[in-house]
């Protein structure tokens, strides 16, 4: 097939043209430079104004010449051009037909893939979601069932605690109730996505269980344990069996308060667990000691204004101090119970934070003292000094009587401190305990107590 370039070449050789095609086809052709040359060549530089009609006519003639040449070429070479166009069109159709076949095959393959993979994957994904929801329902159902079962156990255990006859009350039910409450906390506080208690807060029965069973019974157990600690007393005429019963009752109460004390979440760092202290237990013990101190200070302050009642007041103070010592003995002989919500201490943490060997250590650290008896007498002396100063400043018969009997009062207080610093006899049945109690030196406590009265009567 004859090319267009060959046709143009043949036409140019047969019919020469005055149009300078070489200039127009040059790569560096510039329309502005060509127009400037055309104007300069058709005008005299000294003429003013310039004649632009001649160069414009030249450009128009050139355009007409090019247009005529195009018409002549297309007319003369119509057959080759049409043949070339037909061949290109046929080639395009062949390409399109091949592409249509490939596209149809691709669409068929996609439909087959969609049928065999995508649809089945959608069905499998739906089944997977159903299985996951069934598993979540099963897990939630098990958690709900466990909580309801623990709630039922708690009700039964609490009924043993709240017997109609106080003498028949099983104080060991305090510990059982506490462990059940801790188990419920373990489930209900595990609210992570992969934990046992996830989603329980949305279950109506669980919310009802918390409001009607767990919360009121936990409060009842805590108040019962606090009351047992608050009412703990070891009278002088208590028998050994009664003392053991009082000890067991107090041990159940302090164990319950230890277990019910708030704990940090299991997801927190181990440092918080190592520094954890049983707040409910410490608060109950601190309340017991402060009530004993308050009653002792009030009784002794009143008796200093009425000396005939001093012996009775000192006997009461002695008994209260012995109660505090009995409490310290019981705490010293009891190790902290295992707490399900507290992880075992790690070796590295144990090197810096020692796990308390007995329940008395957290209390001594809380009160910042080395002995409860020493804390009792020193705290009492600090408050008693102010009361004695008030009596001395008011003057009168009471102050004169107290000054005249200062030596006798000092001796009575000294004897009360010595007697009150000895543990109750029901807790010193062994020879070692008696020897240990006899070895204790209370000279500083005696000096502080006697000085709080005699030194303020000058």
UniProtKB/TrEMBL annotation:
The keyword Membrane applies. GO terms for biological process: intra-Golgi vesicle-mediated transport. It is found in: Golgi apparatus membrane. The keyword Cytoplasm does not apply. Keywords: Coiled coil, Golgi apparatus, Membrane. Residues 203-415 form the Conserved oligomeric Golgi complex subunit 5 helical domain. Residues 22-154 form the Conserved oligomeric Golgi complex subunit 5 N-terminal domain. Residues 96-123 form a coiled coil. It is a peripheral membrane protein. InterPro entries: Cog5, COG5_helical, COG5_N. It comes from the Eukaryota. GO terms for cellular component: Golgi membrane; Golgi transport complex. PANTHER family: CONSERVED OLIGOMERIC GOLGI COMPLEX COMPONENT 5 (PTHR13228), CONSERVED OLIGOMERIC GOLGI COMPLEX SUBUNIT 5 (PTHR13228:SF3). This is Conserved oligomeric Golgi complex subunit 5. It comes from Claviceps humidiphila.
């Amino acid at each position: 097939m004859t090319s267009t370039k060959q046709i143009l070449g043949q036409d140019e050789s047969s019919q020469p043209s005055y149009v300078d095609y070489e200039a127009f086809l040059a790569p560096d052709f510039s329309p502005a430079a060509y127009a400037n040359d055309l104007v300069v060549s058709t005008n005299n530089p000294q003429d003013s104004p310039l004649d632009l009609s001649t160069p414009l006519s030249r450009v128009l003639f050139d355009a007409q010449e090019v247009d005529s040449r195009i018409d002549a070429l297309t007319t003369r070479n119509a057959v080759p051009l049409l043949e070339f166009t037909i061949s290109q069109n046929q080639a395009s159709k062949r390409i399109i037909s091949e592409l249509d076949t490939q596209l149809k095959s691709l669409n068929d393959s996609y439909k087959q893939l969609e049928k065999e993979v995508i649809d089945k994957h959608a069905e499998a994904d739906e089944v997977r979601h159903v299985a996951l929801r069934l598993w979540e329902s099963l897990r939630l159902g098990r958690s709900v069932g466990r909580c309801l079962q623990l709630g039922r156990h708690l009700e039964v255990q609490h009924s043993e605690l709240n017997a109609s006859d106080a003498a028949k009350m099983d104080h060991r039910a305090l510990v059982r109730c506490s462990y059940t409450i801790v188990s419920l906390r373990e489930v209900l506080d595990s609210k992570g996505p992969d934990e046992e208690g996830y989603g329980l807060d949305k279950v109506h029965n669980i919310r009802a269980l918390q409001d009607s069973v767990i919360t009121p019974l936990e409060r009842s157990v805590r108040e019962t344990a606090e009351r047992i600690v608050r009412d703990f007393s070891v009278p002088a005429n208590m028998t050994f069996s009664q003392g053991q019963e009082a000890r067991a009752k107090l041990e159940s109460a302090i164990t319950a308060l230890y277990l019910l004390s708030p704990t940090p979440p299991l997801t927190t760092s181990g440092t918080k667990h190592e520094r954890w202290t049983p707040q409910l237990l410490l608060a109950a013990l601190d309340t017991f000691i402060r009530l004993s101190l308050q009653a002792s200070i009030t009784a002794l302050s009143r008796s200093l204004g009425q000396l005939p009642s001093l012996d009775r007041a000192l006997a009461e103070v002695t008994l209260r101090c012995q109660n505090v010592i009995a409490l310290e003995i019981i705490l010293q002989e009891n190790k902290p119970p295992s707490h399900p919500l507290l992880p075992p201490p790690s070796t590295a943490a144990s090197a810096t934070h020692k796990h308390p060997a007995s329940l008395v250590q957290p209390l001594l650290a809380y009160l910042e003292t080395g002995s409860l008896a020493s804390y009792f007498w020193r705290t009492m002396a600090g408050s008693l000094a102010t009361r004695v100063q008030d009596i001395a400043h008011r003057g009168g018969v009471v102050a004169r009587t107290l000054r005249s009997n200062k030596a006798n009062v000092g001796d009575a207080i000294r004897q009360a401190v010595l007697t009150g610093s000895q543990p109750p006899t029901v807790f010193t049945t062994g020879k070692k305990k008696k020897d240990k109690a006899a070895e204790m030196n209370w000279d500083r406590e005696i000096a502080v107590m006697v000085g709080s009265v005699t030194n303020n009567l000058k």
